[in-house]
Specification:
Blueprint: H1 3-8, H2 28-49, E1 71-72, E2 79-80, E3 83-84, E4 89-90, E5 105-110, H3 122-127, E6 132-136, E7 148-151, E8 158-159, E9 170-175, H4 181-185, E10 194-197, H5 218-233, H6 247-262
Parallel strand pairs: 5-6, 5-9, 7-9, 7-10, 8-10
Antiparallel strand pairs: 1-2, 3-4
């Protein structure tokens, strides 16, 4: 487990809070709970002062996030924080978590060795539950090639802005490490599915990787796709319709930024990452 997993609990969590009583001032659980709230307060302060492009997104309020302690998922009863990545349900008051309606249905092809707890694509399922489904590779459905596109920068892929969007009903994304994508692309049910690509973008992802700054986290790719899709069908106009796809991503980005600035945690740091 790397330093970021320690920070996020390996599950986008901070640190474990047990079910022990919290009315004792000397109770370590209460102290840990208060520490978590303090950390979250620092995150909210970092969000207010953030100067990255994420600060320009039209996002729902994060204020309730500072009150979220680790709790049992209402469906599976496992301890989680912020959301349950198994059930794809938000923690706390669900009315305070943004809910999106996407213009296309989404399939995420998940490679089985990828830890679902580290998946950023899970954010899209939590936030747009009615439109996003996860498919565990190699269980790839048979797709209608005329109505389906796959986001992948293959040699013959075209840009989102250049496709005819009128017949498209589904977009497929891949959730795997780069070296496993060829295995997914070789699946016979993807043979006739057209590949599309987005404009070159720089990642804001906090995990250290060796591929370069243009290799995006999956949720970044999903966001940029829908932003460009909206621009393609509305003569270039975009008014933040799908910004909340980056709701959890932005919160965790600021959590990491806050940790860089305020903690002594030991983890592999990305050069020039502090904003």
């Amino acid at each position: 487990m790397d330093g970021f997993d320690n920070l996020l609990g390996g599950e986008y969590l901070e640190t474990e809070v047990t079910d022990a009583p919290v009315n004792d001032e000397n109770n370590p659980t209460k102290q840990q709970h208060n520490h978590n709230l303090y950390d979250a307060t620092q995150v909210l302060e970092n969000i207010k002062s953030d100067e990255s492009w994420l600060s320009e997104l039209k996002l729902a309020s994060f204020d309730h996030m500072s009150d979220l302690a680790r709790a049992n998922c209402s469906k599976c009863s496992k301890k989680r924080k912020y959301f349950c990545y198994d059930c794809c349900l938000p923690l706390g008051d669900p009315s305070k978590t943004p809910k999106l309606k996407l213009p296309l249905s989404v399939d995420v092809l998940h490679y089985p060795t990828e830890l679902i707890s580290k998946s950023t694509a899970i954010h899209s399922r939590v936030l747009a539950r009615d439109d996003v489904e996860f498919k565990e590779f190699p269980n790839v459905p048979e797709y209608n090639a005329e109505e389906t596109i796959l986001l992948f920068p293959s040699e013959d892929s075209c840009f989102v802005k250049d496709i005819d969007c009128s017949k498209i009903k589904k977009v497929v994304f891949i959730e795997s490490q780069w070296h496993n994508t060829k295995k997914i692309l070789a699946h016979p049910n993807l043979k006739n599915v057209r590949c599309v690509k987005i404009d070159l973008q720089k990642t804001m992802f906090w995990r250290y990787q060796h591929h370069g700054e243009n290799f995006l986290a999956t949720i970044e790719a999903i966001y940029y796709f829908f932003k460009e899709y909206q621009q393609a069908i509305s003569n270039g106009a975009y008014n933040g319709e799908y910004d909340n796809l980056l709701y959890y991503y932005t919160f965790f980005y600021n959590l990491i930024q806050s940790s860089y600035k305020h903690s002594n945690k030991d983890f592999k740091r990305k050069d020039n990452y502090i904003k």
